[in-house]
Design a protein that fits this description.
single chain, Rossmann fold, 4 domains, five-stranded parallel sheet, 19 helices, 14 strands
Length: about 475
């Protein structure tokens, strides 16, 4: 390589992570020294096998691999990178006699190949071009996230199949006038989904008006919904506009609609059919143009059988039903939610942290979350406020979450103290134990277990077969 290492191009303020796989230590170090001068964060693997291990366990933006190595060759490294890090770019280094193999690597998905002896500027140019593509992808993803936060289905976060289905439903329903019933346990984000429907509808410039039925005293509920005139009843000193009138032209969200008294159900049904309301104490009907979105954590079908919820109102409310999954059934979304809540809460409080430790992430992934997303947000807020060292760890989580995850507040991890028996055992037994424990914690869901172990799903699948696990 040339010794001219001083004219470095600035890739950007954010370093690109580069893995250099080469069994020639001196050559690998020279490549790393050159790239560090253009703001690359370089890691060296001194064998193909070590390169594969690092690709399985860590993330890299660019992988530079020698083609000819004694144990695992560059094509195997390329294949592993395509499996584990599909967005990473791979640059293959080869001698002139192996150009044919380099062309094979290009056909296998390599970004480019360079021949030895390397020219420093040629290497930097290749890395800069690959970096520009990676940064463009990052910028587009960040822009997409910002646009979603500002104009899209903000806060409806999830990359699980269940949440993909919910978001697709929202996209299809938002432009319509259809009445929607949202079902889900407490804390699953029913009001957030209702707001997303409103914000992406033609009614978005008009009010979104929420009313929690269970939090409103029965004696005041009809006045809250339909309004009242001054003197209509004891305490009604002035006229009050009800939620239906206030939401005119917009969206009315009735949360916990299953708690509505039977008499109010009858009046609500009449309003939905006639699109007219009458204030308490008045004989004058007033037309209202409102899209109704209702939500409940109750089983309305059981309530109909018991006679506590009107069948005709149920069918009027449930023209389309959206079912929100509990957080325990979409654990793969927990890391996304943690990141979202940390960002939001840090901005609100002005307190910053580096992130969340692996042990804390495992504990958060393992907890059952009976309070769902609301409980997770509270847990992150608590951890953020209690943290003193800039990294959220087990000791910042509630004792219940730590203990239920098999951890303790002295810094244990989510896999528990059963690991103590593995001290002095072969590495394969240790690996098998942790994989089996992760599968147990995630109820056999491979995608969730892979995230818990922080390895690729294909790697996990191979290990399951290798160890004969279920």
């Amino acid at each position: 390589m040339s010794d001219d290492l001083n004219d470095a191009s600035d890739l950007s303020a954010i370093a690109i992570s580069v893995l250099i796989v080469d069994d020639d230590d001196a050559h690998a170090q020279a490549v790393a020294d050159s790239l560090r001068r253009i703001n690359c964060d370089c890691t060296i693997a001194n064998s193909g096998r070590r390169g594969v291990e690092l690709i399985e366990s860590e993330g890299f933006d660019i992988i530079i691999t020698d083609l000819r190595m004694e144990d695992v060759d560059g094509l195997a490294v390329l294949n592993k990178a395509r499996q584990e890090l599909p967005e990473a770019e791979v640059i293959v280094l080869t001698g002139h006699s192996s150009v044919h193999s380099a062309v094979t690597a290009m056909q296998g998905g390599a970004y480019t190949y360079l021949t030895k002896p390397l020219d420093v500027q040629e290497l930097r140019n290749a890395v800069e071009k690959a970096s520009s593509r990676i940064r463009l992808i990052r910028r587009n993803a960040a822009l997409s996230r910002r646009l979603d936060e500002k104009f899209g289905f903000e806060g409806v976060i999830g990359n699980s199949p269940a949440m993909h289905k919910v978001i697709e439903q929202l996209k299809n329903l938002a432009p319509s006038e259809t009445t929607v019933l949202i079902l889900g346990e407490s804390g699953t984000g029913k009001e957030l989904v209702a707001r997303a429907l409103h914000q992406n509808s033609p009614r978005k410039t008009k009010p979104f008006v929420p009313l929690n039925i269970s939090a409103t005293p029965e004696s005041l509920l009809e006045g809250e919904l339909f309004g009242h005139e001054a003197g209509a009843f004891t305490g009604a000193a002035t006229r009050r506009i009800g939620k239906f009138e206030y939401a005119n032209g917009g969206t009315l969200f009735l949360d916990e609609v299953g708690e509505m008294p039977m008499e109010t159900q009858i009046k609500l049904l009449r309003v939905l059919e006639d699109r007219k309301i009458t204030r308490i104490g008045s004989n004058e009907e007033r037309s209202v143009n409102v899209r109704l979105v209702a939500a409940t954590n109750a089983n309305l079908k059981e309530a109909m059988e018991k006679g506590t919820f009107r069948r005709d109102l149920y069918y009027r409310l449930s023209v389309v039903t959206i079912e929100l999954p509990p957080l325990r059934d979409r654990r793969e979304d927990i890391p996304l939610l943690i990141e979202h809540f940390l960002k939001d809460l840090s901005e609100r409080s002005g307190k910053r942290v580096q992130g969340v430790s692996r042990a804390a992430k495992r504990a958060l992934m393992a907890w059952e979350w009976p309070g769902n997303i609301r409980e997770l947000r509270n847990a992150i807020e608590r951890a953020l406020m209690l943290d003193t060292d800039g990294l959220i760890d087990i000791d910042d989580l509630s004792p219940e979450i730590a203990k239920a995850a098999g951890a303790d507040t002295d810094g244990g991890d989510a896999f528990g103290h059963g690991a103590d028996m593995l001290i002095g055992r072969p590495l394969t037994e240790v690996e098998k134990y942790y994989i089996a424990r992760a599968l147990e914690l995630t109820e056999g869901k491979r995608a969730e277990a892979a995230k818990l172990l922080e390895i690729g799903e294909r790697t996990l699948f191979r290990k399951i077969k290798e160890y004969g696990l279920k």
